[in-house]
Amino acid sequence: MLALVVLAQTWGLSSIEAKAQVRPQRAVQVSVAAQSKGFELSYEYRPDFANRLLGFKGFVGYGMQKTTGGTWTFTTHYLNHKESFEKRSLISAPDHNEVSFGGEVNILLGGRRHAAEIGAGIAVDHFSHAMNYYSKHKDLGTHPKLKTLEQAKPSKWASHAYLRAGYRYTHGSGLMAGIGINYLQLQGPFTYFYSSTQSWMPYLMLGYAF
Which of 5, 15, 87, 117 has the most neighbouring CB atoms within 10 Å? Predict the structure, then answer.
């Protein structure tokens, strides 16, 4: 009888310890520059595979470039002046903003609390200013005049892709935080900008897992 009690207690403790090591399956996150160059709200799901190693994320993002009353640049239409001057026509969009809709696949390497994180994703972007010359750029050439660009009727839809790596901490209460570096391919499929083609950004993430 005593042996059964000891066995039950041992099994119970083992179950609690095992549960404590299992990662939460769902999470809601807010972030800066984790999936775009702006601000994001995302939902993450981790299926029961290899201690929930893989994660799938859907997100919506918002970015802007403000020049009236200050200069803020959180947009995938990014002007790296050296690159833009050497390779493209320098074109700006004052008070531009964008909305992004995308998905990501990521992996967590480590324990429940401390883990290295690698993620890759792609997003469709809608701009307030038409900036995508994908269907026109072969005819326009590399350095078209500004007037020519204005008459070309570009698209307000674009896309970008990214690859990020960083560190994620998840508390026992479900609160989580992450930091890392994000490489953005600003010109995704069917996208051509007369501005920078890529960018590196540090990112910050806060969230709740359950």
Answer: 117
Query: Whole-angstrom Cα distance, residue 75 to residue 73?
Result: 6
d(CA 20, CA 13): 11
Measure the CA–CA gap between 45 and 161, rounded to whole angstroms. 20
Query: At 8, phi and psi to the nearest 5?
Result: -65, -40
Q: Which CATH class is domain 22-209?
A: mainly beta
Residue 18, number of CB atoms within 10 A of its CB:
9
At residue 55, φ and ψ (nearest 5 deg) are: -130, 145
Where does the chain have alpha helices with state H? 2-21, 81-87, 137-140, 146-151
Q: How far apart are CA 177 and CA 142, in angstroms?
A: 42
Q: How far apart are CA 180 and CA 144, in angstroms?
A: 37
Instruction: Check if the beta carbon of residue 101 is closer than 8 Å to that of residue 166.
Output: no
Can you give the residue ranges of every domain in the chain?
22-209
Nearest to 125 by CA among 84, 161, 152, 149: 161
Rounded CA gap, 62 and 122, in Å?
15
pLDDT per residue as tens digits for the range 27-74: 999 999 999 989 999 999 999 987 789 999 999 999 887 666 555 567
Check: CB of residue 197 under 8 Å from CB of residue 12. Answer: no
Do residues 210 and 174 lie in contact, with contact meaning Cβ atoms separated by under 8 Å? yes
Instruction: Please name the residue that has the structure tokens 């690159």.
Output: 83
Closest C-alpha among 160, 119, 156 to residue 31: 119
